[in-house]
Queue: 4 jobs
Job 1
Amino acid sequence: MKTYENALQIIADNYAIIGKERQELAAMVIDKYKSSTEPFDILGVAYAYLWQGAKFRQDAISYFEKYLSEYSDVELNCHCIKRWSIYSDLATLYEKEYKYQEAILCLHKCIAIDDHSNAADYIRIGDILVKEDISKAEDFYLKILNDPKLSKYKRQFAYALDEVIQKKNRGYVYRPRNKKQ
């Protein structure tokens, strides 16, 4: 078996595995590195908890937040995990925990990291706003449709706005799923 310097290397080298093996690897990473104070161990544990699923979302969020609050300036030299993906993954976790404003803040950081080069980040913000207040989503799309810096995404934003308007006209109201006991 390969020798690893930190938890993040283990996660990165096994990023493509799925199923039971992924969860077993995640459990091993958590067990071995959860008490570490090293930045790449903390980030590796965050991803390990992410891989463990819904029951461990809060743990994943805590480790991502710890990494970002204490070590966001540390050079990240990882082939499959970039600063953008950390914020993107944390945004997904926040959204699944109904922490919409935190998710939106993470997506704005993704936008800044990508220098406004990824329309999907904007669409994700719009999707979250639909869950909060469909009128806010409509206003958001109208605002970005008129932003000259984002004109290359006009078609994607117009399509997303059209979907929001159709939902609004149908009386759509987001209803979260009941949490499993």
Job 2
Amino acid sequence: MIFEFNNEKELYDIFSGSKLFVNILVVAKKDELEALRKRIVQNPLLSKYLSGQNIFLSLHPQKGNTIDFLLTMSVSKEFQPDILDVLYKQRNNGLLIHTIDIEGKPGYVIYLSDLKKRFYLINKDEHTLSGSFSKEVISNCAKYDYRKAKQSFVLLSDQQSSSSLANLYVNYRVLASLTEQR
């Protein structure tokens, strides 16, 4: 299941009272997503590259009857990967950042001090960042090549997606395994 939305402040205001959005967030670990929104997505250094860009939140069933998520964000054309190095040098932002190689992709391990958890972030390509609290999920993402994969999702037409606040994509072949998780 993939939840797609545009990173605009108004969207967060609109969905703040929505049961659908809250239910998706609860399944996807609301506290983790809120910390990422505050510490990374709305970080003053990064927000200008992420504002108005699409964010995709995909849920992945894991061992132990749990669910982890993958957050994938498009970034503006002005974004340069060395911006993340500048973020690394910021003080008192609640983040400890180290570089890492994840399946041949340049990446970062970001320790969020308020959650006491590691978030793995990779520069998937020039204009896409992907991250997860699960090293297994981010490794699979780094290895994934869309050119070799079967199409599991159908894109919405521009007309349909431009008139919606958010889109939900469901891969019905794996939905049963996802609904069995907590």
Job 3
Amino acid sequence: MNGLMSAPQEFIVNVLRQFNALRIDQIEWLLKIKYDIVNARSLMRQLAYMGKARRENEVWCGVWRQPVPALMAAFDVMMALCPDTIPEFYVGHTQCQLVFYIPGEEGEMPNSFKVYYVVNGQEIDVCEYACAQRDPPGHTVLYIVSSNLQIARLYCDKTFFAALKGGDGNIEFFQGGVQN
């Protein structure tokens, strides 16, 4: 731990290094679950004063980082599936934006998820890439789409869902059919 930062501050700086940028509601979710802190704005102002974060429009960015909408959308999907716990996660900066693990029942393997942001017109490329991925074994594929029209063009040889953010900001999940 850095002697100048509290544990919550250091935690947020580390998450911002991975995701580049997050909205304040995403930061509040992290702090509420991990540290039971509800005043994220104050903590972020302190980090900005220390030169560890900066505000850009409606998001907080790590130092020398730019917002990546696909990563923020992947974070939203993780939040929707894990409302009460922060799962173990790994941020990718390839076609797979995020891998996260939800603990299983006692003695069971964790449930693993790989999140892919699907740009309209690139469904086949993303689906082929997702089908070729083998690790972690038994993972579920989550495709983030921007319209209902994309859902019909998605496929995978693993269990998969399409995630679509509605006008109310809530994410709706649609289960896809597994191709063998």
Job 4
Amino acid sequence: MRKKILISALAAITLIAGFSSGLGLISSATSASGNYKVADYAIIGNKQVLVAANQNGLEIFEVQNNSIRKASEVKLTNFDSFPNGLFIRQEGENYYVYAAAGSEIVRADITSIYWPAIAARYNLGQTVYDLKAMPGYQNIMAAGAFGLKELESKNLSPVRNLWTGAIYGLSINSQGNMIAN
């Protein structure tokens, strides 16, 4: 529930800042606002962290005392479009954000929210529309123009094709059941 509230708060801030920017109240050259399409939330150590994707890459925010403050960003200059899918996952002691845009998928270590680092990149050759993790399962799922692929979580290379028709969205529940459209 808290995750939904924080993501909704980020969306509201984006809308307000975007509206203000359109009225000339905020200069787009110096504005700290952004246009975010996807976001995810996690608690890393004692920090509440929100990661949101925009046209330039990933922005990492720290949520503290009912305010949202930008901690860092990961520039993704090779992304060929706006990010479509994003999720945060703990793996051992580290936290990673997985993001997909265009035909590329990126895995970034955000354990230190002030010093994120890209851990892996992989180009699938066709547009990726969604990216999800299966609960209790190490590998990740990528849906796109190519269909549905299972990917190895460390280097993001394909493990197997699960479907060959285009898939535009993917949902996985806590039991691991998938719905694709």
